[in-house]
Amino acid sequence: MGTQSRRAPRTLLLVAAVGTLITPLAACAGAGGSGGSSDGDSINVLMVNNPPMVELQKLTAANFTKDTGIKVNFTVLPENDVRDKISQDFANQAGQYDVATLSNYEIPIYARNGWLHSLDSYVRKDTAFDQDDVLTPMTQALTAEDGKLYGEPFYGESSFLMYRKDVFEKAGLTMPDKPTWQQVADLAAKVDKAESGMKGVCLRGLPGWGEVMAPLTTVVNTFGGTWFDKDWNAQLDSKEFKEATRFYVDLVRKHGEAGAAQSGYAECLNNMTQGKTAMWYDATAGAGSLEASGSPVKGKIGYVPAPVERTESSGWLYTWAWGIQKASKNAENAWKFISWASGKDYEKLVGEKIGWANVPAGKRTSTYDIPEYRKDAAAFADVTRDAIASAKPEDPGVQARPAPGIQFVGIPEFTDLGTKVSQEISAAIAGRQSVDSALSKSQKLAEAVGKKYQQS
């Protein structure tokens, strides 16, 4: 991740913003206790309320606590709220929380700010954890510029295209093994209204740097665009950025879901599950829900790599990972929790108790050797693993860039910049302004950020 800081200013305060996987589980907020000073036999964990985390919370007392005697006090919040709370607690080094869920976007930034414990010494002592089993892209993404490891993945993901095999077959259509975006647009037109109430494709339109900007930025990359060139010149009004954004906005307006400007990951997942869309481009993590027992579309979905135009691959790289606050007085117990939650045995526990399709995968090589997992996740396991392996956070486009990141720019300012740009893009999706107008305003925002780096 070394390129991240070559021209980075020293002021690195993270601004909270909307994240990648917002899920409809707000009722779980605060479930399982809230933060407070933890004692030697307990730790406080602040985490996002997506389904794999909620399952973890349910399994902790009867397994981790029973085996170790360490009580875990969970604070579970929606993603927007949890990012805000984590950034405040870790920036102040208040020590209220020992462990928090952080992504590969925040961890290198937090590490540079001195907010996290390095995990190298724990990894060396805990040989059963087997760091070498963790997929290399995940370890690299959670290693800071000082060469030290600061996070362990709970699950990893890339992005791919999901489609209804049965609908395509009935319409006499074939999904290419490696589709281009133009092929996706052509197919979306043909499967639109293939069934009553079904749209051709679901693409995020909800504002947020980790909502609409995540898939859109992968489209920009493969169309030849970038947020900044290698010298920090903003590129949002470039021909390539405009072409990609127009393509995305036109596709979702013509053949996308109803209410696209307010649709994020959760809404598209619901649409796909309920048979309201024939295709969905999004996180590989969505497949576990689509293939879960009880899903109305289980066995009906096909999975192919993220569509491309000018690049070999275009899938993103993301992980929800665990980080230990530097101010924690319970770092040893915090590591024991992380070792359990990101360990091989935990995946087996989830498989046996909840279902193998629900295993928090995308992080360990050994997961893909488990017969039960391979059977239940057969439809998407290999495509997911290949997508993660082919992700190129240092080089996701056709030109050099000044900071790593595929679906984000790996700088602290991106939470604010990405969110403001996303609001302009979402307004274009809603039909309230043109793409040119949205990108003209966005270019000015990006120029202000780029100038800070040019002057540093």
Automatic annotation (TrEMBL):
Q: Which UniProt keywords apply?
A: Signal
Record carries keyword Signal: yes
Domain of life per record: Bacteria
Signal peptide start-end = 1-29
Report the InterPro entries cross-referenced here.
Bact_solute-bd_prot1, SBP
Query: Gene3D superfamilies this protein is in?
Result: Periplasmic binding protein-like II
Q: Which SUPFAM superfamilies match?
A: Periplasmic binding protein-like II
Q: Name one Pfam family in it.
A: SBP_bac_1
PANTHER family linked: ARABINOSE-BINDING PROTEIN-RELATED, DIACETYLCHITOBIOSE BINDING PROTEIN DASA
* Protein name from the UniProt record: Sugar ABC transporter substrate-binding protein
